[in-house]
Write a structure and sequence with these properties.
The complex is a heterodimer. By secondary structure, chain A is α/β, with parallel strands linked by helices. Chain A has one domain. Helices cover 27% and strands 18% of the residues of chain A. Chain A has 15 helices and 15 strands. The N terminus of chain A is likely disordered. Chain B has three domains: 253 residues, TIM Barrel, CATH 3.20.20; 132 residues, 3-Layer(aba) Sandwich (Rossmann fold); 89 residues. Chain B contains eleven helices and 29 strands. An eight-stranded parallel sheet of chain B has the order 1-2-3-4-5-6-11-12. Chain B has a seven-stranded mixed sheet with strand order 15-14-16-17-20-19-18, sandwiched between helices. A six-stranded antiparallel sheet of chain B has the order 13-22-23-29-25-26, with helices on one face. In chain B, helix 6 runs parallel beside helix 8 and helix 9 crosses helix 11. Chain B is globular, with a radius of gyration of 24 Å. The relative contact order of chain B is 0.09. About 3% of the residues of chain B have low confidence. Classes of the chains: A alpha/beta, B alpha/beta. At the A-B interface, helix 7 of A face strand 21 of B.
Amino acid sequence: MITTTCSRRKFMGAMGAAAGAYLARPVMPLARAVPASRVAVSTCREYGPEVTGALARMFDQLGGLEGLVRGKTVAVKLNLTGDATTRLGYLPAEITHWVHPQVIGATVQLLGQAGARRIRLLESPMSTAEPLEEFMLQANWEPRDFSSAAPQVEFENTNYLGYGRKYSRFWVPDGGLMFKGYDLNHSYEDCDVFVSLAKLKEHVTAGVTLSMKNCFGITPCTIYGDDSPADEPSLTPRGGRGPFHEGNRLPSKSAPPPLNNALASKDPGYRVPRVVADLVSTRPVHLAVIDGIHSMAGGEGPWCDNVRHIQPGLLIAGTNCVATDAVSMALMGFDPMADRGTAPFETCDSTLRLAEQLGVGTRDLNQIEVLGTPIARARFNFRQS
Amino acid sequence: MNVDRNWVPMKWPCGPLEIARREKSGSSNADVKETLEAWLRPSALNLLEGTPINCLVVDWAGGGPEDSAQQQALKPLLEAGGKLGISFVGKLAPKQGTGTELAAARAAGLSAVMLDGAPAQSSGLPALRQFPRDKAAWETATTIFSATDNVWPGLNLQTMKGDTALAGPTGIPWVNSNAWFSLLARELAPGKTLWLDFDPPAASNLLHPADYALAVADSRAYGSRWIVSLDDKLRAALPKGDSQARDVWKRLCEAIAFFNNHREWQTFKPQGILAIISNFRGDNAYLGGEVLNLLNRRQVQFRIIERAKSQPPLDGLKAILWLDNEKPGAEQQAALLAFVQHGGLVIAAAYWGTPEATPIKKDPSLGYRMYNLGQGQIAVADDGFQDPYQVAVDTHLLLSRRNDLVRLYNPESTNCHLSGESVSPHNGKRLVQVLNYSSEPAAYVTLWVNDRIESARFWQFGVAEAHTLTGRPASPGTEFDLPPLSVYGALEFEDTNL
């Protein structure tokens, strides 16, 4: 087992000027002041060549990608939730609940142009150890579109051990909210820069799925799955993440055990946001990119009740995941300062608030510099659309 | 007298033999007895008027004291049926194919007998061999032959928890289907017609009838015929003119009539770029059958090739799954290695290629060593073939979904079968039949085909004319959004000529 705290300094060192303030923060007590951030917003009505131009402008507004990625290994966590054949009505997954291949391809291209040495596309497809490329093919995507967008592009299914020899252990700074640490696929350690490439949508359990909730899927179901073995990880992932959602069982004993409060609560609205906050605290996100060109309202996938297709026509990017999610929430018509009991957190705690308390970033729009299209001009109200 | 491959068979339980059997098994009561007597009357044949059912399977000899009474009791029914053009097949219990019974059957006007072995004595009466499907005696299959021990098609009730179907390891509901066995029969008994013998679940009733139309479709779409078999409650209600029963019966007959109206589809060949080679016998029967079943469930389109063929037809294939532990014969090996040399993939449990090749590990997630030979590869399972599920998954991944020919989105409990005038997916008329194995209609199902196709003719049961479905270009291929599907739909494509 590789034991690492996945040091923030190690990652921040890769981030360049845009993340300088973040790098400078001290070891964190809870509820401390968090660094100010920049978030870029662009309208983009459709998927097409215009996506690349919009993202390029946004990355420039953030200070450019070059300082962040040149010569580095960049891991990009995609948001491909559920299986590859489930659709909302007849609409392909990328039009509703998956990040669109056009956004992935454009991001890969721009990372490559900025000098990334190696770009690794990562996701933990549901209940399977099949190669990520095969999962994409099942959705009728062409992985070659991504591998030809930059010099060295790799794919890895991170829902199990994958190409690694051991799971990497990530200890959560300050002890964590739900677990002291997490065992993850090696890909999340074997990178210099970590990008969360997410979809702009709501989430039935966590309120919103944005760049932070996307990281819930970095956890392997060989350990954190409903049917993972009691002692050691399984060879292939089994089931969903019930041990996180409902605490219906413990993860495999090979991984760090849950904290006492995690054992006490069975409320997914308490548990999931805390797991997510832990994860983005121990596995920092250096670049958050959110696809809101087409999406769905009412939940995170077609399996949720009362969901519908929407077209917000938005792209959002930032170098701090909390700030990026805060701006995204505002664009969705929600108050990023909202907490349990207020939309979209009617039945859950705010991941943004929890991550903010862990010192990951701010959700206060007054402390966030919004670049590009102003929020007021770009807002798309998810609950009234 | 000859058997007629156009016979549409139906079980017609009635008379003393069935009554005795029911009493013996404790499943008899006054209602059951009344029904069995009612179905013995010639007037019961009115039910068949205007339906495609033209062949009744009746019990003829069970080897007990009721045989004589049974044969006597059947006479009025046989006579009346004969006048209506209905054929009768008499079922003989094991070891009952003696001269006496056969002579009596012939004298009574039966068209054929069904029995589990060869008749002890030639009677001039055609015999239909019947065997359990796990003891299939393919070499002795008659022009029409029958298999027992099949499953009732649909969601597996044994995996139901409350009202919810439990998922298998794939996360999709487990579905029972005889499709694989029908496909296997087409290869191992070519030119012959398989009648599948299976009965509806005991729980079937008028409020929640078994899905008879699905039982028809799961057989006919894959080239076999189901011996129609009704549940007790339906058989009791039909002669009384019960409207619910009549409705169930009407839908069943519509399904049969639909396939009779599309007889040319029965000549279509399964299309696929993957071939499964095995002898499907003895120790290889279980693995072979399960792999066929699971690949079909994954919508992997395949062709079956019997291992005995020294020159297997490999045209148009991209991959071959050599399932058996036995190595190919010299002639087969030469053909298979030539296939690999020209870019094909062979998946096998053990290596039998040329000795100079060195294995490489291509993908750690797959337990296979890859031997590069010429432009192709032989993939050899690290631990042989153990688990049929894993063999099916690995085969699909080694072949790659890039080579899928068809795929369903929002498949839920649906499945599909691709066939065509030619084994090549690129020539002639093609057909994709989509079956819904759930009792709930399948909504928002999209069929993807790996071709550019502008439109398809879409057929459903009970609808006389096809309507046109316009394809939506995808990259690659074409998608067709299907209307809600209760049981079955078929998309017919003209020559795509790609």
